[in-house]
Amino acid sequence: MRVKYLIIGAGITGCTAARLLQLHGEHDVMILEAESEPGGLCRTKKIGPHFLDIGGGHFLCTRFPEVSEFIFSHIPRSEFCEFDRVSKIAIDGEIIDYPIEFNLWQLSVGKRHKYLDSALGAGEVQGHSQPVEFEKWIRWKLGDEIAEHYMLPYNRKIWGVEPDEMDVDWLSKIPRVDAQAILETWRSEKSARDRFPSHEKFYYPLEGGFQRVFDAICASVRDKISLNHPVTRLERRDDVWRVNDAIDAEVVISTIPWATIHTAEGNDLSLEGDISKLRWSSLVVSLFEENYSHDWHWLYCPDENISHHREFFIHNFARHSAPGGTYRETNVKRWKAGKGEIYSHTNPIAYPIPLRGHAGAAMAVHEHYAARRLYGVGRWGQHSYFNSDVCIHEAMLLVKHLLS
Ligand SMILES: Cc1cc2nc3c(=O)[nH]c(=O)nc-3n(C[C@H](O)[C@H](O)[C@H](O)COP(=O)(O)OP(=O)(O)OC[C@H]3O[C@@H](n4cnc5c(N)ncnc54)[C@H](O)[C@@H]3O)c2cc1C
Predict the structure, then answer these.
(1) Which of 256, 258, 330, 335 to mutate to test the pocket of ligand 1 (most atoms within 8 A of CB)?
(2) How far apart, in Å, are the Cα atoms of 122 and each of 148, 190, 247?
(3) 208, 260, 326, 374: which could form a disulfide with 252 (CB 3.0–4.6 Å)?
(4) Which residues, given as ranges, of the chain have pLDDT below 70?
């Protein structure tokens, strides 16, 4: 069997690429998906009366107008509710609004000054140059006190590796800490919402869960997906890629981690060092039933004495879900079935870890294979901490390149 475009993975990146090819009249497309259903990290399951996003907390928000236009041309904006983000941080035994630096005034009188001193005395505000090690970067960004009670433990929990093993290049889009704004919020006791780093507002579907976004994009390419069909072997033969010893593809678009592709291919040993830097972490999402009477969307939990790092309050952004549903995200290394947990889902590939040297390694691998018409795209193909909107955007760029 021969196809023009073979896509590995029926997540939002792979299905968007297929949809875009279709919109440009390219119908000779096949998508191979390892699991028994498509959607990847964008899946939702209805568990009892609760809609659970099994890939963790997913909200729609994008800075790319073309991505908004693409999504809303598949599912109307009127099928979403728009929210002003209400997220909280549990720090030092108290709960305050996110982001920490604009809400220090919410801490109790005995604590708030040490955190203000931390933020205002930090390296960035003092004009020191940016360190290249992640732990030092964290201390440089918001000072030792905030680093030790919030950012260091939180990052250890989410990534499951020591901060010193990680790079800082992926943080370049985080805005500068603005000392003036910190002081203004401190004096006025009002958060600076216009300076939120991201997701200040977000959309969430009025029915179902985040999967509605995926389903809308995927609907017209569903018949191109072959489920329960993992790619286990890729081999370059003349001008095609032979996939699983059965399908010849002129172009392969991969949306899965490179380490899984490389072992399948079993050659190009020169890339092994680079590929070993492209590691990921796994995540468990667990559902609970607990009453709450606040309006929070989610809570960051840096305390290393508890296993999860974030908790979501489903009914506060999905009113059609029953009251009292919460879910927690926990790195698989820290997870133990908790009391009251009524369902859990493990995502084997959840966060691409930005280990030292990952960006150069990803680029080297990408270029090597792109020259052979095997293109990596999306969160795994580019090994980048992309949200689904960025994955859509990257799929747009790739398809434009392929058709040019
Ligand atoms: C906790 C968490 C919170 C997030 N929050 C948000 C958010 O608020 N907003 C947002 O927009 N994005 C969010 N994201 C990011 C978003 O989930 C991803 O950017 C996006 O879903 C990635 O899509 P993908 O198709 O590239 O990868 P995936 O969704 O991982 O899809 C890859 C697919 O490939 C399949 N596959 C794997 N191996 C093989 C194989 N060998 N052969 C065939 N198929 C294979 C998998 O089964 C999967 O279906 C979040 C992610 C996480 C983990």
Answers:
(1) 256
(2) 13, 22, 56
(3) 374
(4) 197, 262-269
The candidate with the shortest Cα–Cα distance to 11, out of 263, 380, 278, 402, is 380
**pLDDT value at residue 117:** 96
Amino acid identity for residue 258 in this structure: W
Q: Give the pLDDT of residue 267.
A: 55
Strands 201-205 and 225-226: unpaired
Q: What is the DSSP letter of 75?
A: S
Give start and end residues of each alpha helix (H) in 178-295: 179-188, 211-218, 258-265, 272-275
**Residue 213: strand, helix, or coil:** helix
Other CB atoms within a 10 A radius of the CB of residue 25 amount to 7
CA dihedral sign, ordered 347, 390, 79, 195: positive
CA of 392 to the centre of ligand 1 (A): 12
What is the rounded end-to-end Cα distance, in angstroms, of the chain?
Answer: 26
pLDDT of residue 174: 85
Amino acid sitting at position 283: L
Examine residue 99 and say whether the peptide bond preceding it is cis (omega within 30 degrees of 0). yes
Q: Look at residue 147 in the predicted model and tell me its pLDDT.
A: 97
How far apart are the CA of 385 and the centre of ligand 1, in A?
11
The verdict on pTM exceeding 0.85 is yes
Q: Which residue from 263, 258, 261, 231 is spatially nearest to 247, judged by alpha carbons?
A: 231
Domains, the chain: 2-43+56-80+206-278+353-403 (3.50.50.60), 87-198 (no CATH)
Between the alpha carbon of residue 334 and those of residues 215, 250, 281, the distances in Å are: 32, 43, 11
Local structure of residue 293 (DSSP, 8 states): -
pLDDT per residue over 86-128, tens digit each?
A: 999 999 999 999 999 999 999 999 899 999 999 999 999 999 9
Instruction: Tell me how far apart the alpha carbons of residues 24 and 108 are, in angstroms, rounded to a whole number.
Output: 58
What's the pLDDT score for residue 71?
98
Q: Which of 81, 23, 11 minimizes the C-alpha distance to 379?
A: 11
